Amino acid sequence: MIRTFPFPADLAVGGVGMQIGPMGTDHRWHVDAPLHRVHRIDFHVVMLFIDGPVRHMIDFAEYEATAGDLLWIRPGQVHRFSRESEYRGTVLTMQPGFLPRATVEAAGLYRYDLPPLLHPDPAQLAALHAAFDQLRREYEDTETLPLSLHTAVLRHSLTACLLRLAHLAASSAETSRQHADSTFTRFRDAVERGFPTNHSVSAYADALGYSRRTLVRAVRAATGETPKGFIDKRVVLEAKRLLAHTDLPIGRVGVAVGFPDAANFTKFFHLHTGQTPVAFRAELR
Questions:
Q1: How far apart are CA 57 and CA 214, in angstroms?
Q2: 36 pLDDT more than 60
Q3: Cα–Cα distance between 236 and 258 in angstroms, integer?
Q4: Sign of torsion over alpha carbons 176, 113, 81, 215
Q5: What contacts 158, CB < 8 A, 6 or more positions away?
Q6: Phi, psi at residue 258, to the nearest 5°?
Q7: Which of 20, 95, 113 is nearest to 59 (CA)?
Q8: Rounded distance, CA 242 to CA 91, Å?
Q9: In sequence order, what E strands does the chain have?
């Protein structure tokens, strides 16, 4: 069973519901926390990197962060640290319930649809570094104010940080969506030109200059299908058109959609329609 670790309140300065400080390989959520094995946490973690690359698994997807990137891990998400990566930068953790509900909703703290890996531009990064530095100073200063005021100031400073992060996450999601739309459009057009002879996802990815993973994400976001499913659907549609509107022999129809062997075409068509090409044509006539 994947273990879940609680917020380490005993390690927080003054016992408040947050922590902020430098990242280190010796950091522990709990004495028994297996950082290099899959585990789950019930609090927020934001890592702002000053070096990289760092590979980190979140919900079974691998992310690679470098200097200036952030990773935002939300409560309940499964993740794992990389033994091969050196984690350098600032880490912010926050216990659910530390901020009021209005702030939680405004900052989208539980928007699991938003990307965990964020790439701020230079201006955004400078503002985030300043906000993190201010928050860290307030967190470590336990002498200037009584605990109640100290906690209130921390909440306000943390809110400012999280609102900046929320804006960045939402903007990243929109940019990703637009990129996915563009990627899918290019893929769709390439399939329209090439499906009679090319049924290979890797070949389309190489021709378009995308990784297979990028293509899978873009096509799934646009259609809910895999690239292979999209290609196959287009091939089936063309085969149906030829079977319905021409008198071409079955073997010639197969050749026209990329199957030189009639038996392979029949098997493919039956797999995707539940009918043989002959039965499909007979039903229409």
A1: 17
A2: yes
A3: 11
A4: negative
A5: 18, 94, 98, 99, 135
A6: 100, 15
A7: 113
A8: 60
A9: 4-5, 18-22, 39-41, 44-49, 54-58, 61-65, 70-73, 78-80, 89-94, 117-118
- Quickly list H helices, 195-285: 201-208, 212-223, 227-245, 250-256, 262-273, 277-284
Higher pLDDT, residue 33 or 249: 249
Lowest pLDDT segment from 21-35, 45-59, 141-155, 262-276: 21-35
Between CA 207 and CA 196 the distance in angstroms is 16
Express each pLDDT in 69-95 by its tens digit: 999 999 888 888 888 888 999 999 999
The answer to whether the bond into 53 is cis (omega within 30° of 0) is yes
CA proximity to 16, closest of 184, 206, 172, 150: 150
Q: Helix or strand or coil: residue 253?
A: helix
Candidates 16, 77, 95, 25; CA nearest to 54 is: 25
pTM above 0.70, yes or no: no
CA distance linking residue 218 with residue 228, whole number of Å: 13
For residues 195 and 115, what is the distance between their CA atoms, to the nearest angstrom? 33
Q: What's at 77, amino acid-wise?
A: Q
